[in-house]
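Hello Y.,

Per our agreement to keep a running log of every chain we model this quarter, I'm adding this entry. I've kept the format consistent with earlier entries: sequence first, then predicted structure.
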Amino acid sequence: MHVLVSGAGIAGPTLAWFLAKAGIRSTVLEKASSLPAQGQNIDIQGSAVFVVEKMGVLDQIRQMNTKEQGTQFVDTNGKPYAQFLIGKDNTFSPTSEYEILRGDLATILYKATANNPLVEYRFGTTVRKVISNDEAGVEVELDDGKVEKYDLLVAADGQWSKIRTECFPKECVRVVDTGLYSAWWTLPRIPADNDLWNIYFGPNSKMMSMRPDPHGTTRAFVNCMPTAGTQTKIWQETSRSDRQTQQELIHKEFIDVGWQADRFLQGMTTAPDFYFQVVQQIKLSKWSISRVVCLGDAGYAPTPLTGMGTSLAINGAYVLAGELSKSQNTESVSTALLAYESKYRPFVEASQKIPPFVPGLFHPGTATKRWFLETFVWTVSKLVAAVKVVPWVGSKVNKPTAQDFPLPSYAAFD
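Predicted structure for the entry above:
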């Protein structure tokens, strides 16, 4: 069996590692000419921690941790009014034990597979066209003009997957809009920056935050949840525009927000890694068509609101590779794809569920709602602090890291 994987982010290299473990050959295509930039914060949770431990890269992930010590909420003057610090006795903090930059994790996963004789990487290469896709295999034309045939094509090319768009009918794909818009970029670190995730609730449904990283810089991001129809239309149109137009809108909307808005906006114009995103979910009625299958964000992007994107990609790669490892021949690939979906879809659908008050609750549109939110966060922080100083109560509330998705056992990986 020979598998073609489109995308060398998180899901692609993880899949390649487990396919090689099962003795299956894979070719991983990446449209970028090199490994992705460091990017923004992601984290690994639950069962995905056990998967990366199986890969032998957990210690490397710990070493590349962002060194974030917890989360604090600040007012317009930068004064903290609520803190949630991480520690062995506290699992309430939004900061995860396994915080890492996306590019750093992708690099670790790439290096874990780059020298494996069963894995081939081709950077600066992508699928131009899927020529045929049936039970005999999938034939593709690459952007360098080569035509190649594989037993399976895996779309691991992100939320706006080109492979998915070409191979799946429109009626199979549902895009769920959360009404939220986000942008990320890197700022030069200054002496006043701390090692906490600092979050500021601004006026008019806006949020700003910054986080530490292990590279001596600071990661900034902003959110806006427009409520008026005209404003929403502007943000929607801007999301499809060029970088300059996107930055002009952010500058206009955030110039008077308060806190460190001036610093954010000044750094945005020169940041090498500015990224603008419409926060939307991807839901597919089926994950595979003949010999093309979706993995990670291409199949089930949950949005950063769930905090599950990275973990879903890692777990999904494990299950897909595991089911393929049971295939005795290329004819049984279809059976493996159906098993991958039937075993993993219930957990994905549960992970994609977002409470109806999210993200609106955390993007208050009025001063009154903002006051109530800040008061609520302050109250919760005090209750958490009380739990921390009462060991018995803490032992009843806090739970050790556990598998949220029961990982199937596969002989090839044992």
